Amino acid sequence: MILSSKVRLAGAGLVALSLAGCGVTPVAPNVDTPGMPNAEVALQKSMDDTAREMARIGAIEPSAAVASKPAVVAGELDRVVSMQWSGALDGAVRRLGETIGYRTAVTGNAPQAGVNVAVDPAPRRVYDILHGLGDQAGDAATVRVDEQHQLLEVIYHG
Questions:
Q1: pLDDT in tens, 83-138
Q2: pTM as predicted
Q3: Which DSSP string corresponds to 81-139?
Q4: CA distance 45 to 43
Q5: Which CATH number characterizes residue 150's domain?
Q6: Which element (helix H / strand E) includes 151?
Q7: How many domains does the chain have?
Q8: Residue 119: how many other CB atoms lie within 10 Å
Q9: Is residue 49 part of a domain?
Q10: 117 and which of 22, 39, 136, 137 could share a cystine (Cβ 3.0–4.6 Å)?
Q11: CB 144 within 8 A of CB 153
Q12: Residue 4 DSSP SS3
């Protein structure tokens, strides 16, 4: 009887041990199995790719700026002149008009304080001087060039 109880106890232990082995499945630390990607591994790969591309972008040197070509204008406006001026805008435009043989027209009401401009005596194209005068006039006036009718206009916005 003692033998049968030992066998019975050993059998019960063997059954319990085998059932315990079936109940616990090992969890792999890396779930990288076909068809089931590991989110952590995918995130690390994405971060590595991003870091590599950012390093590549950071190594790109900016291209050198190319100087823009001057605007193509009529021969009179392309002429290089030296003119010094400090005073009213319409006076400067009139003087440039006389220099190149263009008529000058002034429209609109000039502001009470007037629009004073200055022209550096360094030799420059007439077109560039007129462009500079328009920039100095700002919102107070517009300097317009009509090449077809050989006309320089100062249009005051006041």
A1: 898 888 888 889 999 988 999 998 888 888 888 888 888 898 888 888 888 888 88
A2: 0.54
A3: E---EEEEHHHHHHHHHHHHT-EEEEESPPPTT--EEEE--S-EEHHHHHHHHHHHHTT
A4: 5
A5: 3.55.50.60
A6: strand 151-156
A7: 1
A8: 20
A9: no
A10: 136
A11: yes
A12: helix
